[in-house]
Amino acid sequence: MPRVPTVRTNGQRIRELRLSREWSQLQLARLAGARAASTIRNIENGGKAHSSVQLVSQIARALRVPPSEITQDDPDDGTHAAADADAA
Fold first, then answer.
1. 76: burial class by Cβ within 10 Å (0-12, 13-18, 19+)?
2. Residues 69 and 13 sit within 8 Å (Cβ to Cβ)
């Protein structure tokens, strides 16, 4: 089975952006097309440090920010470039 590309997410930044819009985790999950609010909760709480490039792009699109604003550089693989390229 092919490996799904992932990026290191910045859960704290996602939480800040979500709260600044006065959205619940469920609202963000629905806007981003995530399966459940627990997906957003896991990302924000650091339980899911790496997320698929597709999910990160969808969350960024819902928050109206570039993917690089909600990801962290992973020193091994240059993930910012991958997330931004996928969102384009």
1. exposed
2. yes
The Cα–Cα gap between 41 and 25 comes to 7
In order of their start, the domains of the chain are 6-87 (1.10.260.40)
Better pLDDT: 10 or 51: 10
What is the Cα–Cα distance from 43 to 12, expressed in whole angstroms? 9
What are the percentages of helix, strand and coil residues in the chain, rounded to 5?
A: 55, 10, 35
What's the pTM value of the predicted model, to 2 decimals? 0.76
pLDDT tens sequence across 32-78: 999 899 999 999 998 877 888 999 999 999 999 999 999 987 555 44
- At which residue do the structure tokens 């959205």 appear? 23
